[in-house]
Amino acid sequence: MISIALFGPTLVSFVLCLVVMRLGIKDAPDGGRKTQAAPVPSAGGLAVLATALAFYFALASPNVAGFVPLILLVAAAALVGLVDDVRGLQARYKFGLSGLMCVLAAAYGPHLETFYLPGGPDGGWPLPAWIAILGAALWLFVIINGTNFMDGANGLAMGSAASMLYPTALMLFPHAWFSADSALPGTMVVLSVLTAQAILGFLFWNLRGKLYAGDVGALGAGAVIAVSGLVLARTYSVWVPATLTLPFLVDILLTMAWRARQGGNLFHPHRDHAYQLFLRAGWPHWCVALLWWGFCIVCGVAPVVAIDASTPSDATAFWIFITLCTTGSALWFWQRAVIGGRLKREGL
Fold it and tell me: Which residues take part in binding Mg(2+) (predicted)?
């Protein structure tokens, strides 16, 4: 059973990617953010999500309190992405739909009851229900759409997603079988591992530029990261999933702040993310992807090693987040000054 769960999704996803490539869904160059020389088969994320969900329902039970709204969000996010890949959706409709889905999932699914900051109560500040719901919805919205923002280099977004899901599953594992409230963490362990393994089958094609994930892949994988992170936050601390997703959050939030200061449209396609600066500077896609995977490994290993699963510390999680967030932000500003400055001088 374990070997089927580990290797089955990779093989099935690999084969389904061949099927998806024959569907005729293409991602064409647009002279802006999409810089490939010719149209490339897209919607490879359909193979990933179909594989992960099929294996989940074959191996595990969806009859877990709080799980149905989360899995419906994953399916809905993937569906919106697929419609965008096939027919095209205006950004305002896509963001509006994802916002509505996130609010509903947060309202009917699990959300935080406390929020920790230094100087406050040891267990964190109690949260009114409406703040907890809005906070959960904001987390879901940012991670789902942020993963899509980062999907602009072969292997980067989906490989990073897998690199985030493995430590998520590892940290939830002790609570999946050795805790009184084990059902939801156990469910997320299974879903996270299956999704990560399915991504591996897709990466064989994606790293070579033969197949793109499409919005169905980026939004769907982002939804799995977001919902598993929500369960991780309830199990440990909100700062743990925030740390795991720092390689995305730092680039997304700082780039949006930078574009706002420059007077740019925050939701218009662009090539100003840190990873895009590397591509514009001539780095090959696989090098940029490996760099982000390395960032994800660092942000995943730190909480896994430093936080005791039996007695998780909010304070430890907070300071790990602050340390890595500060380091990542410093690297972002350094790259913006050095590489971004050179690209500006050269008109690239």
Answer: 148, 215
